[in-house]
Amino acid sequence: DHSDDQRKLSSRLVHLHRDESLGLGLSIKGGSDHSLPILISRIVSQSPADLCKQLFIGDEIIAVNGVDFDSTTTHDEALKLLRQSDDEISMKVRHHRVANIYRKQWRKNDNQFIDLQDDNPLIKKTSTLDLNDPKELIQNESNGANSWKECVRMELFLSNLSQYVSFSDKLRDAGFEVRAINGQTALVQCDNQEMCREWCQTITNAINNLTLNHMKLLNKSLPKSEHILYMGWVSECQTIGYQPKQSYKWSQEYLIIKGGALYIHKCPPNSLIQNDSQLNIQLINKSLYHYNCYQSVFRCLKPNEQLDDKRNVCIIQSAEESSPKYLSTETSDDLTNLKNAWHRANYHSVTQLGSKTFPVVCDGMSGSLTLDWRMGFALYDPLVKEYKWNYKFHQLKHSSDDGNHELSLTFVTNPNDSRITETQLLECNSLQNLLYCMHAFLSAKVASVDPRFLQSS
Questions:
Q1: Backbone dihedral angles phi then psi of residue 262, each to the nearest 5 degrees
Q2: Which pairing describes strands 175-179 and 146-147: parallel, antiparallel, or unpaired?
Q3: Is 373 helix (H, G, I), strand (E, B) or coil?
Q4: Could you give the CA distance from residue 292 to residue 261 in angstroms, rounded to a whole number?
Q5: Which residues form the PDZ domain (predicted)?
Q6: What digits encode the pLDDT tens for the residues 38-51?
Q7: N or C: at which end does the chain have fewer Cβ atoms within 10 angstroms?
Q8: Residues 9 and 83 in one domain
Q9: Angle at CA 354, nearest 5°, toward 413 and 320?
């Protein structure tokens, strides 16, 4: 059979020794139940499969320890044989031309391919994106092993991937851009949307893993209340022109949530990259924007609230700002992680603050309204030097304001009957600050009794 002869001629024999912790260090896809050959779909960095330098993502496994894989071999059968084999394994493999989607490659400008090298971030903090020559595997003269001929390499640490055309809300057609922190960029056009989605997810996962490991490293030297909770690129919307010819420009910025505050920078600050003692100073002094959570509000927008076709949009606004900042994340997962990090930061912000007092007028008498983490709402009368009234946060039934100075708070006074209430009318010259602080305290209280929040914290 000519095809069988060709199969044998193009195959190569690889010997592996199983590692106690990493095993062989590879994953497979395919099988007769998926109408595919058995293909290597993943190789773990620093594993036996990686260190041998003879296996590549997309290789077809033909046999293991003399047992052939044929057109009837299922995925589970192949997996069982790989797992139950002795520590010393001989594996016959061949390069599979049609396995592009598993082989970590894309066409770029019709003459280059892309390959993802997943280095161990705990060792180097660098995972790289490699642009490779389109030729097949080349022979290494020093050791005879096959490898890709590398043309361009980009570090993925703190890099940014976007499917949007720069500065706009327009998505590329099956393409994306990767931008490294040193300014190096790569525009990649995939053959189809499915391949584009798979590769965007692969690279995004690599970037996120590097970021998460770096956050863990930074947080080792920080108290829990000052931990970095989120790091990542966002797009900020800037309005251009005036109605009715108003348009929007989106610029890339780097967002960091640390402790009880959110910082937006033009790019990741050096102290964040190098983990030096100037981190807090640089976060504040070199930020474009700085928000204390207890003085700000954060909200994810619904699709019908968004300004244009940019997806995954949220707003953040402090009491001192007349209009909110519109921010967009690349993926919905990024937005969910950002929202969860904000809630944790808000909790840290409020619990560290403990209480906040505002001068108010109640029943024509000057006093001070205190929001206290343990006490709730409390109005202090300076004439008699005691609290005139006090309600727990959970007693607040509803509130309303006139957008100027007046605030109405209605509290439930009978725990057995929510219809029995008391309403307190207040006047406050810093009403917006009071409302934002109220929102922060109430959100933190809700989060503090949420089991999922407590578990994640």
A1: -120, 135
A2: unpaired
A3: coil
A4: 4
A5: 13-97
A6: 888 788 888 899 89
A7: N
A8: yes
A9: 95
CA 149 to chain centre: 32
Q: In whole angstroms, how large is the CA radius of gyration of the chain?
A: 29
Tell me if 67 is assigned to some domain. yes
Give, in order, the Cα–Cα distances in Å from 204 to each of 5, 48, 161, 212, 313. Answer: 41, 25, 7, 12, 18
Mean pLDDT per 10-residue interval, the chain, length 457 residues: 46 88 85 82 85 84 92 89 88 66 37 38 44 46 49 81 91 90 84 87 90 91 91 90 70 95 92 74 85 95 90 94 93 95 94 96 95 96 94 95 95 93 96 96 88 58
Compute how many other C-beta atoms are within 10 angstroms of the C-beta atom of residue 130.
Answer: 17
Long-range contact set of residues 237-242: C-beta below 8 Å, sequence gap at least 24: 237/307, 237/310, 237/313, 237/326, 237/327, 237/328
Q: Which DSSP category does 324 fall into?
A: P
Cα-Cα-Cα-Cα dihedral sign, residues 262, 267, 271, 274: positive
Q: Which of 353, 385, 400 is the endpoint of a domain?
A: 353
Single-letter amino acid, residue 206: A
What distance lies between CA 200 and its chain's CA centroid? 13
Same domain, 260 and 330: yes
Report the amino acid identity of residue 64: V
Please name which of 284, 334, 288 lies closest in space to residue 313, comparing C-alpha atoms. Answer: 334
Check whether residue 10 and residue 27 sit in a common domain: yes
Instruction: Look at residue 216 and tell me if it is in a domain.
Output: no
Whole-number pLDDT of residue 451? 62
**pLDDT, tens digit, 9 for 90 and up, residues 58-114:** 788 999 999 999 888 998 899 889 888 888 999 999 875 444 433 333 333 333 334
